[in-house]
Amino acid sequence: MENKKTYTVAIIDDFLEEMFLIQKYVEDLPFLKLQIVESDPVLGLEEVERRTVDILILDMQMPRLNGVAFLQALEHVPVLIVCSNYTEYVYDTALYQVAYIRKTIGRLDFEKVIQKAIQECDERRAALKKEENVISVKAVKAAEGNILVDCDKLGYAEIRDKVMHFYGDGYFLSGRITMQELSEVLKAPPFMRIHKSFLVNLDYIDSFNSRVVVMKKSKEIINIGDEYYPSFKEAMKTWQTKPQT
Questions:
Q1: Which CATH class is domain 134-237?
Q2: CA–CA separation, 125 and 135 (whole Å)
Q3: Has domain 7-131 been given CATH number 3.20.20.70?
Q4: pLDDT one-digit tens code per residue, 124-159
Q5: Alpha-carbon span 176 to 110, nearest angstrom
Q6: Residue ranges of the domains in the chain?
Q7: Does an H or E element contain 109, and which?
Q8: For labelling, which of 10, 87, 196, 201 has a CA lying 20 to 30 Å from the CA of 33?
Q9: In the record, which positions carry 4-aspartylphosphate (predicted)?
Q10: In degrees rounded to 5, what are phi and psi of residue 213?
């Protein structure tokens, strides 16, 4: 199995000796990083909450805190693989787990389960990215509620007559938000304010000089304010576009 991404794993079981096989499988896969191995479920809960865990491999029958209580105590449940030789917890964990396996599972079957878990991880990451890259802005007419601006497609924004206009690949939207508010939501990089009336996406810039930027595709020319140019020029040194000579 080839995978260029890395996924962190936690193993929680009060008898880690029984998890030796699972731990060996995890350590043998180069795209998995064993982040936590803990026999005390209470300490394990603290570690999972404190650190970034993509995949949680969890036993069910544990003292002090059984597997179901462990899951209920988590604020955010990682992608879950229940690893238990007892089947009575299948129903209680159905909402959480992508697989319910025995501790004696074979390597090939384990790798199939891991692929399923990785697919779930990737879907969660994609959903999170989409959520993070969409902002909600009040519509120009209050009765219309809010509009959603896809930041991945946003080339630049212009404030004009107290209305913010959003320009991107194949779309144009208008809403009510101040430039200051927008600048706080869309962090640099890749978004950067270059004029009192303009905020641009650095990924969408084709070229620039000390007075204007030229946008890709649309070839729109946008003015750069004198007070914004020094910080903009500095940012572009580490970005994709170089100044015109």
A1: mainly beta
A2: 18
A3: no
A4: 777 656 567 888 888 888 667 788 898 888 999 999
A5: 52
A6: 7-131, 134-237
A7: helix 107-132
A8: 87
A9: 59
A10: -115, 150
Backbone angles phi, psi at 167, to 5 degrees: -115, 130
* Separation CA 228–CA 141 (nearest Å): 32
CA distance 162 to 55: 47
What token pair was written down for 200? 């641009």
Q: pLDDT (tens digit, 9 = 90+) per residue, 25-36?
A: 999 999 999 999
| Assigned token pair, 159 | 């404030």
Residue 140 DSSP code: S
> Could you tell me the two tokens for 32?
């998995």
- Same fold flag, 7-131 and 134-237: no
Q: How far is CA 29 from CA 3, 25, 115, 147, in A?
A: 10, 7, 11, 44
